[in-house]
Amino acid sequence: MMTIDDFVTLVRDELGMPVTAEQIGLSLDEVPGWDSVHLLWLVTALERETGRRVALPDLLEASSLGAVHALYVPAAGAA
User: Fold this and answer.
1) Residue-number span of the structural domain to which 25 is assigned
2) Which pLDDT value is given to residue 25?
């Protein structure tokens, strides 16, 4: 399972963005340096790391990094 800390590390390493765990709840347009290309890079890295694919409409509705993380990491107790 990918924890929030793992996710933040992935964003830092793969996207080169110095985000913190506290920033993952910010709206994507509030994340310093964020643009739509970062979402494509992030999705590619997440699919590689988790082995999961997420529907594009769901990704486009994600309003924060935390929402993107939630799409790839099932809630506790979920199958």
Assistant:
1) 4-72
2) 95
